[in-house]
């Protein structure tokens, strides 16, 4: 494990022509302090954990100094926001410092979110508040522990420099890590300016670095587009299966690598509700939970359009044409595993009927699936804890007897199936009320113990943690009033 001084930075994105970014240094903040960090993310940089106590590192991650080899830039991009094209976006508050290559040969770009104004800040102050930074930090690391592709969060640094939103709040910076932060919108910006060469050049860059196996092809672009569509389909299957709602699926928040990117007003389902809208500002429900796979498909067509100058329309539409089948198959496979069944049409109907029952009875999605791991498939078994989640017991009994019959017919062994199901049905997710409690304590009392406890808990979401049983419970009544919007 290395010391700070031995990190070598190499900023390949900053070696691209300046059309893609602006050089801009972070704006310093007074008296930065460490709020929390992720040891797992630190290990990605091969950094020794003791380095987190060094003021030099905190000053760097606060944007107060740059290390040798860093080349700070803000990336340019555009995007479709709520269906409308916005030509001028870009990193308004995120600054890329450079890329660290670890001993395993992986490259990790290091980005500070909330590092001050950039040429793309528009009216914004370039800052992030502690509240939203804690949510991003916890959720990035929780998603990773759930095996869902995501950008990572190394740490949060706070400063008493005030930031003004509805009220005065505490400023914070999240250090994010990803192989690349390139978005669909990074391509769109040039398409709508009628600049073909930069689209091709960016595609070449992304292909060479992240899809190197395609460089052998004489025409790699259609296959590149196909791979992006497939990764996005897989990601949507994972979101839908775990009950994650992103909240702001604009094309500028869609990663070219199929990572979960830009955590804002996201939410995990509590009671199963297909129409769940986590973003208070999304009054039309454009990004409702059950819309996500279709929205992603729409976003992919926007990406395909930007690549049409590099291929024919027919080729582009063929390249993305598999998305619905790939999503459907990936989703069914994940749901089948969560129900302890093989994928197939009988499983699909058992799953869909279960989801309908959950919605009708307002049953907690995560709790239902975790209880389902312990299902007793013997004829006549009552499965009381599971049954008690439903108001309509008769409907549950009818479904449970179908499920039990299917399991018996497969020769499924209860104990074996339970162990396998517990590895895909998390016990612990980042429920809004848990984040809210941690945030309040951090903001009001500068007590970060709850953030750390949640972080530790969520890095082992599939494990039974008897001391943390309360964190697996349904939200309390007060939590229904929590509203999360984009203004963070
Ligand atoms: P988001 O909804 O966080 O994905 O942000 C949408 C766009 O607004 C991005 O280009 C952000 O960089 C920019 N943005 C969000 N908040 C701020 C802020 N406080 N200051 C400057 N730009 C911001
Ligand atoms: Mg964004």
Architecture blueprint of SSEs:
Elements: E1 9-10, E2 21-23, E3 33-37, H1 39-44, H2 55-61, E4 73-75, E5 79-81, E6 84-86, E7 94-101, E8 107-113, E9 128-129, H3 130-145, E10 152-164, E11 168-178, H4 184-191, H5 196-210, H6 221-242, E12 244-245, E13 267-268, H7 292-307, H8 313-320, H9 323-339, H10 345-361, H11 365-372, H12 384-387, H13 393-410, H14 414-422, H15 432-445, H16 449-458
Antiparallel strand pairs: 1-7, 2-4, 3-10, 5-6, 7-8, 8-11, 9-11, 10-11, 12-13
Helix pairs in contact: 3-15, 3-16, 4-5, 4-7, 6-7, 6-8, 6-9, 7-8, 10-13, 15-16
Residues 252-253, 262 line the site of magnesium ion.
List keywords for this structure.
488 residues, alpha+beta, 3 domains, two-stranded antiparallel sheet, 16 helices, 13 strands, 40% helix, 13% strand, globular, binds adenosine monophosphate, binds magnesium ion
Description:
With 488 residues, the protein is an alpha+beta fold. The chain folds into three domains: 178 residues, no CATH class; 149 residues, no CATH class; 84 residues, no CATH class. It has 16 helices and 13 strands. The strands form four sheets. Strands 1, 3, 7, 8, 9, 10 and 11 form a seven-stranded antiparallel beta sheet that branches. β5 and β6 form a beta hairpin. The longest helix has 22 residues. The protein starts with 8 loop residues before the first strand and ends in a 30-residue tail after the last helix. The structure holds adenosine monophosphate (AMP) and magnesium ion. Adenosine monophosphate (AMP) binds next to loops.
């Amino acid at each position: 494990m290395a010391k700070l001084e031995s990190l070598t930075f190499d900023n390949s994105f900053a070696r691209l022509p300046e059309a893609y970014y602006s050089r801009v240094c972070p704006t310093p903040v007074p008296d930065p302090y460490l709020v929390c960090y992720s040891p797992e993310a630190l290990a990605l940089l091969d950094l020794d954990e003791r380095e987190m106590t060094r003021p030099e590192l905190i000053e760097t991650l606060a944007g107060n100094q740059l290390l040798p080899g860093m080349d700070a830039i803000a990336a340019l991009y555009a995007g479709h926001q709520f269906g409308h094209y916005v030509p001028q976006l870009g990193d308004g508050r995120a600054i890329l410092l450079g890329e660290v290559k670890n001993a395993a040969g992986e490259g990790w770009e290091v980005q500070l979110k909330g590092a001050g104004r950039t040429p793309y800040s528009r009216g914004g102050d370039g800052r992030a508040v502690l509240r939203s930074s804690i949510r991003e930090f916890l959720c990035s690391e929780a998603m990773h522990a759930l095996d869902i592709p995501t950008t990572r969060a190394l740490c949060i640094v706070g400063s008493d420099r005030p930031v003004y939103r509805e009220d005065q709040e505490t400023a914070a910076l999240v250090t994010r890590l990803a192989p690349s932060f390139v978005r669909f919108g990074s391509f769109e910006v040039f398409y709508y300016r009628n600049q073909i060469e930069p689209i091709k050049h960016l595609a070449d860059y992304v292909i060479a670095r992240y899809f190197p196996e395609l460089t052998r092809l004489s025409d790699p672009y259609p296959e590149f587009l196909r791979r992006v569509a497939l990764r996005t389909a897989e990601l949507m299957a994972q979101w839908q299966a775990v009950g994650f709602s992103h909240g702001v699926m604009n094309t500028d928040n869609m990663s070219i690598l199929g990572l979960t990117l830009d955590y804002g007003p996201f939410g995990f389902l509590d009671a199963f509700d297909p129409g769940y809208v986590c973003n208070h500002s999304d009054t039309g429900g454009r990004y409702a939970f059950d819309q996500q796979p279709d929205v992603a498909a729409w976003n992919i067509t926007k990406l395909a359009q930007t690549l049409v100058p590099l291929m024919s329309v027919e080729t582009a539409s063929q390249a993305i044409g598999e998305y619905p089948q790939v999503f459907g198959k990936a989703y069914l496979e994940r749901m089948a595993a969560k129900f302890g069944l093989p994928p197939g049409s009988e499983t699909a109907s058992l799953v869909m009927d279960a989801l309908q029952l959950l919605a009708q009875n307002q049953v907690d999605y995560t709790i239902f699936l975790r209880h389902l791991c312990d299902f007793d498939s013997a004829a006549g078994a009552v499965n009381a804890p599971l049954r008690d989640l439903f108001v309509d017991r008769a409907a549950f009994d009818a479904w449970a007897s179908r499920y039990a019959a299917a399991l018996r017919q497969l020769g499924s062994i209860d104990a074996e199936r339970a162990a396998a199901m517990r590895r895909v049905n998390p016990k612990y997710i980042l429920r809004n009320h848990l984040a809210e409690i941690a945030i309040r304590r951090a903001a009001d009392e500068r007590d970060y113990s709850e953030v750390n406890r949640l972080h530790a808990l969520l890095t082992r979401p599939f494990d039974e943690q008897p001391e943390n049983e309360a964190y697996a419970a349904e939200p309390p009544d007060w939590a229904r009033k929590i509203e999360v919007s984009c203004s963070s």
